[in-house]
Structures are given as structure tokens and as C-alpha cells.
Design brief:
Blueprint lengths: L1 H22 L3 H15 L1 H11 L12 H13 L3 H14 L11
Helix pairs in contact: 1-2, 1-3, 1-4, 1-5
């Protein structure tokens, strides 16, 4: 299941980062290098998650789409109170900080 979580995180991260950048100045400049590094480190899990995602369907039979997850989360983020939004955006930054022991498939 970790591969699916990483795949969804990869597909929804930029959408969430845009929502954070709407209200937090220079959020993207801090987020993008972290995300790029995280993505390069976790490419095997992302690819595995993408292949596994075809096995999972929504209620209408459509395959898993991380963009849908990202859009929903971004909408929720944009409607939250400023302090809650800041906390969630800080979590997003932390989620994409690479931990060498926990990343990639070994």
C-alpha cells in the first residue's frame, strides 16, 4: 500500500502546493526543490504505485486518479481558516522532505 500512497502523493502534491502558494508567499520556492528531490528518490515507488493503481476503481468504475484527490484536498485547504491552512502547508513541506532510510525500494 505504501506504493499507492506515494503515487497519490506524487500526483496530488503540485495541486496542493498551488493552493498553499495562493496564500503563503514564496511557498513554491521552498516546496519545489524538496518535491523534486523526493520524487527523484522515490521514482520506483511512484512507478509501482502507478501500475498498482489500475487495480483500484472508484464507485463509477473509473481508475484511481491522484488529480481528483489533489483537487478535493486543495478545495478543502482553500476553504480552511488561515492558521489551519498554514499548518497543512507546513505538513506538506515536511511530507516531501526526504528521509534517506525511508525512501525508495531496497
Amino acid at each position: 500500500m505504501k506504493a499507492l500512497q506515494v503515487y497519490v502523493a506524487d500526483g496530488s502534491a503540485i495541486i496542493l502546493a498551488r493552493a498553499c502558494n495562493d496564500t503563503i508567499p514564496d511557498f513554491a520556492s521552498e516546496f519545489l526543490p524538496r518535491f523534486t528531490h523526493w520524487r527523484a528518490t522515490n521514482w520506483k515507488l511512484i512507478a509501482l504505485g502507478a501500475s498498482l493503481s489500475t487495480q483500484f476503481k472508484d464507485d463509477k468504475g473509473a481508475p484511481m486518479d491522484p488529480t481528483v484527490v489533489g483537487n478535493y484536498a486543495a478545495q478543502k485547504l482553500r476553504s480552511s481558516a488561515p492558521e489551519a491552512r498554514r499548518q497543512e502547508c507546513n505538513k506538506l513541506l515536511q511530507n516531501f522532505t526526504v528521509n534517506p532510510e525511508a525512501s525508495d525500494l531496497h
